[in-house]
Design brief:
Rossmann fold; two-stranded antiparallel sheet; homodimer; alpha/beta; about 250 residues; seven-stranded mixed beta sheet
């Protein structure tokens, strides 16, 4: 297994990331969060685990919307420092833990939530099993990740664009869709590793981990996003994000 | 609603299709059928409906592998004539019926099967509901259709290729993925209409029709296919087919 990545503790990455998040004009705020909020189950009196909680924004949201207890885990020390300094809710806890070590959590939850973290994990099948083990029967699992059509293509080193534009329309390059595995992407710092998984891998790993699929969504342009960021119109051509809501089966 | 298509009764289409199927060196034989066979549930004593049965190849297979009763439906008179002339099994029946009129079948089945037909149907949501109504509780629904990444892109009229080749590698054009609807494709005869649906549409329509997703597959190159048809190596870049196996839930 490759060494576990901790890109958010890289100084350059962290400061670039902070700047991007501060503006509130980004794909997280405009495309990803609205869809995740629309997919949330009832939070009242629920015990919730947030995997890759970052600065704790969603942990605070859960606490403020009726959750009984929230545990946020993240590999990044810097992100957790921000999270702790911004969180006053007494029923929210943070713990530094990589997604690869979830079995260290000796507890059960009603909801497991994760936003845009899973494309950094090498062993998706193990992750699904670990999450299944952390959920109570009928517990809800909601996650987002980069969309397979977005992570698939391994570009030739000479290619500097992910698409060709013909008469004002973008045609994105699609290749390597059926080849699960490492993708190296340039994003803030060089050398960030992501993992591509096809739809069928994602679905089947969930099903094998005793999840019943309740809903699948793909990011789409919405009115506000289009007003603020013109290029988000291309979400119609190739979505950035995949969203899955599933229920832990009673065995 | 558009008029229901019946392309297989077009003389040109039918003879081209017959030629293609006779060679046995095609994507159906080499990529689609092997995957469908691998996904089949136990057939013993089962009542099976085959939607878009064509020449009845799978209907005969079901009868010869223990099915109690098989009904094959298809819109094409020509295809059903071939099917009838080639079928001796007394427990196989054929009926001329478009997929849009499934509620005319007053019967229940243990298995509903459909191979590469659903991308011709305009109203996928209705189709899923109709099929759900035809299945006994715990009944199995297995279908294949063209893969969303294969149907998505609406090419500019001037474009004659679906991909660009750079240093020997194919990058397929992907666009319009999130735009469900009509696609006009050239295949044997001009003017064949197919319908594109995103992965989330397919999954959510199934779930809303009380199906539990059991397995999702995407066509991949296999050894025999690669030996016989070199271009099938590009299945790794962009799969032709999507396969779904689901179970009717007990309400």
């Amino acid at each position: 297994m490759n060494e576990i990545q901790n890109i958010y503790d890289n100084d350059t990455f962290f400061s670039e990331y902070e700047k991007m998040r501060e503006t509130k004009i980004n794909a997280n705020e405009l495309l990803e969060i609205p869809m995740m909020l629309s997919l949330l189950p009832n939070l009242k009196e629920k015990r919730i685990l947030d995997i890759g909680c970052g600065a704790g924004g969603m942990c605070r949201y859960f606490a403020e919307h009726g959750a009984k207890y929230v545990l946020g885990v993240d590999i990044s020390k810097k992100m957790l420092e921000v999270a702790k300094s911004e969180t006053q809710n007494s029923n929210v806890e943070y713990r530094r833990l990589a997604m690869e070590y979830l079995p260290e959590i000796k507890d059960k939850f009603d909801i497991v939530f994760s936003s845009l973290a899973f494309h950094y994990v090498e062993d998706f099948n193990k992750l699904m099993h670990d999450i299944s083990n952390l959920l109570n029967p009928k517990g809800i699992f909601l996650f987002s990740q980069e969309h397979p059509v977005n992570t698939a293509t391994i570009l030739n080193a000479n290619m500097d664009k992910k698409y060709v534009e013909i008469e004002g329309k973008r045609y994105y390059y699609l290749s390597d869709y059926n080849v699960d595995g490492v993708r190296n992407l340039k994003w803030n710092i060089d050398g960030v590793i992501k993992y591509h998984r096809s739809f069928s891998t994602i679905m089947n790993d969930l099903i094998e981990s005793h999840f019943k699929i309740l809903r699948v969504e793909e990011s789409k342009p919405n009115k506000r996003a289009l007003e603020l960021v013109e290029k988000f119109k291309h979400q119609k051509d190739r979505p950035y994000f995949l969203f899955v809501k599933a229920e832990k089966e009673t065995l």
